[in-house]
Amino acid sequence: MTFDRKNYISKSKRLVVKIGSSLLTDSKKRGIRNRFLNHLAAQVEELNDSGIQCVIVTSGAIAAGMFEVGLGKRPTEMAKLQALAAVGQSSLMHRYEVAFKRKGLKVAQILLTAEDLSNRHRYSNAHNTFVELIKNGIVPIVNENDSVAVEEIKFGDNDTLGVLVTHLCEADLLIILTDTDGFFSEDPRLNPKAELISEVKKLNPKIEKNASRSISTVGTGGMRTKIQAAKNMMKSGVPMLIANGNQPFILKKIFNSEKVGTFFHPANKKMPSRKRWLTWSVKPKGSIIVDEGAQNALVNKNKSLLPTGIKSTNGIWEKGEVVRVVDVKGEEIAKGISNYSSREVELIKGMKTSEVFKKLGRIVTDEVIHRDNMVKV
Ligand code: GLU
């Protein structure tokens, strides 16, 4: 059975709306646009009234910080950006609070780092917090904790954060609001004849190539990170929309099934929550290198990973942590939760299950990684 945009949208009861920095700042760079926030609050209120729960992922902390300290150009140095985010986040949050309060809505600030979402325990704590807030009619306003996240482990851009938050709070739809009407056949800033693509059922290399880099002076990402986000959402089985946040009542138009923006159709089957976490949120602690037999069993036969197919390991991990599975050429083929620590895997690699007991004096499970706790890359 195939669904169209209308089917997906009418079934959406919880959505994540990502707001880009360019929407929050005016073209003359005089400050955060309170009018935009007031209008957003009015739309969220309307959706709430019709039983649709909203989570906001907002950018704009660095941009707001630039206004606060009177900086015209976005710096590139990490420490400066982090300091600006610290200044800007509180003033940004204050604006949200004021705008939403006028509509009788309470907001809550959630700042996340990639590490928070990589750890299963913290991930489920964060999930519970979201559920509790939403249950109580409070609108979570999420941003990356820019002031403490170090470069190597940053989400990097809020389009990616939007994807992870959609999975984290089990939302049915991700809407990325930006300052263009959607995704175009070519960069509309360079070619005025570029056409808006209203539906994407499948991504191809041409589409990915057309997703140009942003030239925004206040945010990061541009279309490139939005298309990457769409790729992830489509694979996970959850729909995504890119639309123009400057269009009046854009969220209402989307929920009235007007053909606005670009709608990305999801894969038919929704990936289970644990597999989505494994695929996008987790940072593996090490690698297990497997032989061709195991590679074939994992990739083509959907089997679990047994000690017998393991050739070697890289890195140190404890039982229950996530590792990469790589082939003999070093190509990643899967990711999964290891039932054994790296020390144990080193001791039992290449062994038959019957030999494992003799070596370790115990068997936790036959599988080093069970197929239910594994995702293919
Ligand atoms: N987290 C950054 C901020 O709030 C924005 C990142 C982005 O624009 O993608 O300023």
Task: Output the keywords.
Archaeosine Trna-guanine Transglycosylase, Chain: A, domain 4, 377 residues, binds glutamic acid, single chain, alpha/beta, 15 helices
Strand content: 15-25%
Low-confidence stretches: 213-219
Helix content: 40-55%
Helix/strand order:
HEHHEHHEHHEHEEEEHHEHEHEHEEEHHE
Number of domains: 2
CATH architecture of the largest domain: 3-Layer(aba) Sandwich
Outline: globular
Which CATH class of the largest domain? Alpha Beta
Sheet with the most strands, sense and barrel status = 8 strands, mixed
Secondary structure tally, helices = 15
Rg, please? Answer: 23 Å
Arrangement of strands in the largest sheet: 3-4-2-1-5-9-10-8
Structural class assignment: alpha/beta
E-strand count: 15
Mean pLDDT reading: 91
Provide the CATH topology of the largest domain. Carbamate kinase
Can you tell me the CATH superfamily of the largest domain?
A: Acetylglutamate kinase-like
From the N-terminal CA to the C-terminal CA, the straight-line distance is 27 Å
Report on this model:
By secondary structure, this protein is α/β, with parallel strands linked by helices. It folds into 2 domains: 5-271, Acetylglutamate kinase-like (Carbamate kinase, 3-Layer(aba) Sandwich); 284-376, Roll (Archaeosine Trna-guanine Transglycosylase, Chain: A, domain 4), CATH 2.30.130. 40% of the residues lie in helices and 18% in strands. An 8-stranded mixed sheet has the order 3-4-2-1-5-9-10-8, with helices on both faces. The protein has a 5-stranded mixed sheet with strand order 12-11-13-14-15, sandwiched between helices. The chain has a two-stranded antiparallel sheet with strand order 6-7. Strand 13 (322-326) and strand 14 form a beta hairpin. Helix 3 (34-49) packs across helix 5. It is globular, with a radius of gyration of 23 Å.
